[in-house]
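Predict structure. Chain length: 278.
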Amino acid sequence: MDLPWWPRSLRDAATDYLQALLGKTRPFESLLPLLEEALRRAPNPRVVDLCSGGAGPWETLLPELQARLGSSVEVLLTDLFPNAQAAERCAAQPGVSYEPQPVNALAVPTELGGVRAIVNGLHHFRPQQAQEILASAVAAGQPIVVLELLQRTKADLLASALMVPLSVLTTMPRVRPVSARTLALTYLLPVLPLALAFDTVVSTLRCYTPEELLDMAAAVSGAEGYEWQAESLRCEAGLPVTYLVGYPRVKTTSEDTPELAPVDWEFEESEELELVSV
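Prediction complete.
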């Protein structure tokens, strides 16, 4: 579905399916504290979402973040292939906007400041490209959040092949607006379920582990000035989630460090000092 010749109607239908699935399962809500901390470390309270497709999880996550941090929190959605229907749908939600012009995740414009996020998208990039995405955020001094609804395990690979077609059949009726073409390619000629099953299997094989994500982050120039966290877990719905979060460390100044009273180190000859390694 990354290939330019793939029909746009099928690409949009696929991202709309993922959007409906995220809205139904809400797999990333347990990570709200990490997103909140990343926003606190950003120059402005905005999420710049890369590879947004059908808008990702922000329709449900943004109200939660606004409740925690205030209504000033915004989300800007971007994509190399902007989804016009998603942009129209998001226009009705306060704080959400969709950039109408194509945005390449490997060349994010410098004026797009805020927490860079990439949801279900990093596996589309080869390791060197994925590292470039992390390096670009660090070079710009921006926090970055990677969320994946995938884990590279045999069980999840099998589940992708068997369960995704069924999931597409049961989820597509939730997609709005209803498209006769999409329904025909789902139920009459099941191109969409088969294409999404293939896409998910390949994506699962290409998904990065937490250890690989941390290794990529550690190799980025300036990574030592960032705090990095990565983990794989299961959400309440049982779906596999992998994440990487990186944000600038809090810099301490001399004003933040309390003065210590001088200590007179005097010992009698009979005293012994015990060295304790910590």
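Summary: The longest helix spans residues 8-25.
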